Amino acid sequence: MARKLVLWGRRSSCNVQKVIWALEELQLLYVHVELGGEHGGLDDPAYRALNPNGLVPTLQDGELAIWESHAIVRYLAAAYGDDGTWPPDPARRAIVDQWTDWTATTFQPAWIKLFWLVVRTPQTDHDVSSIMAAYAETVAAMLQLDNHLAANAFVAGNRLSYADIVAGVALFRWFTMDIDRPSMPGIEHWYARLQQRPGFRQAVMVSYEELIGRRAY
After folding, report:
1. Cα 193 vs. chain centroid, distance in angstroms?
2. Are strands 64-67 and 58-61 parallel, antiparallel or unpaired?
3. Of 46, 52, 55, 73, nearest to 13 (Cα)?
4. Rounded to whole angstroms, how far apart are CA atoms 89 and 105?
5. How many Cβ atoms sit within 10 Å of the Cβ of residue 54?
6. DSSP annotation string for 141-159
7. d(CA 21, CA 31)
8. Residue 113: half-sphere exposure toward Cβ, Cα within 13 Å
């Protein structure tokens, strides 16, 4: 009997979106349980037994429960992907991993901070100096990626990998936020390519209206 994939987490969470995109990209059947935010349930003992952090997302594959979005995406790529999403060659996979880890340590902390300061903080409480500092960090990271994408169709080469999923989830919000965006042809062309993928459109191009001006969620 096939194992049952179950994903817990609210669709407006960018970390949940990574997992939905991976599931859709790999054309896997799964059950999605909305959890967190207006849906509640993070402190439910049954959920805490799966994820002691009480955060989203969590993926259950048969008896295996995994939390942390990048760990989940890596697992799905390894368990169900092809040699594009999970390169069998250690050298190729190292390139995927370096950009995945760069996203976790450099890119996502910067753009998430900017998103919180611009979108999730009520406008009456906007701190211009903090916004500009976060904006500078985000642009610096994006320019690094933009320079890399000038010679690459995707983050780790000429095929989509899980590095694209964890980094690319930022793009819909970046291109729809009320901010100035410097010209970045590499990023812009990459975004255009990602928008052609049904999984990206379904998972990532999701309204975040419920998050506007809402700090606690």
Report:
1. 16
2. antiparallel
3. 55
4. 24
5. 14
6. HHHHHHHHHTT-SBTTBSS
7. 14
8. 20
